[in-house]
Amino acid sequence: MTRFERLITLLFLLAPVILGGTAFFHYVEGWSWVDSYFFSVVTLSTVGYGSIVPVTTLGKIGTTIYIFLGLGIFAFVIQQIGHIAAEKRAAHTEWLIARLGHHKAGQEPQADNRDDRPSP
Predict the structure, then answer these.
(1) What is the separation of C-alpha 116 from the centre of its chain, rounded to a whole number of angstroms?
(2) Taking burial as the number of CB atoms within 10 A of a residue's CB, which of 81, 103, 104, 110 is the most buried?
(3) Span between the terminal Cα atoms of the chain, in Å
(4) Per-residue pLDDT tens for 81-99?
């Protein structure tokens, strides 16, 4: 699976969680769609500004369930995006080393930098 396909898969994993939370808060708390979306993302990301809070009993119970279920998915997606970035960096590093030709060196340079001195 390519990086792009993996990112799309992760978005399709995260989107229902955010959209479900947005719809839940819109209908239960009576918030606008934007406020509901904002609260969903802020809650899952554990930022928690506190500018919007649920006031109904169902909203409070729903929020705790949303946190327990959604936080694991959100954390997994963020971890996977970090893993993809690390893989990309490792691949670039390998390409760079091969391009510079260090893989052909006969020996490793010395720690005391004796290999930096010109040969007599």
Answers:
(1) 42
(2) 81
(3) 54
(4) 999 889 889 888 888 887 7
Question: For the whole prediction, is pTM greater than 0.85?
Answer: no
Residue 111 has pLDDT above 70, yes or no: no
**Range of weakest confidence among 50-54, 89-93, 105-109:** 105-109
SS (H, E, C) 71-118: HHHHHHHHHHHHHHHHHHHHHHHHHHHHHHCHHHCCCCCCCCCHHHCC
**3-12 burial by CB neighbour count: b if 16+ within 10 A, else e?**
eeeeeeebee
**For residue 62, how many other CB atoms are within 10 A of its CB?**
17
Q: Domains of the chain (ranges plus CATH)?
A: 3-101 (1.10.287.70)
- Torsion angle defined by CA atoms of residues 89, 92, 93 and 95, in that order, rounded to the nearest 10 degrees: 160
Tokens 């040969």 sit at which residue?
119
Tokens of 119: 């040969």
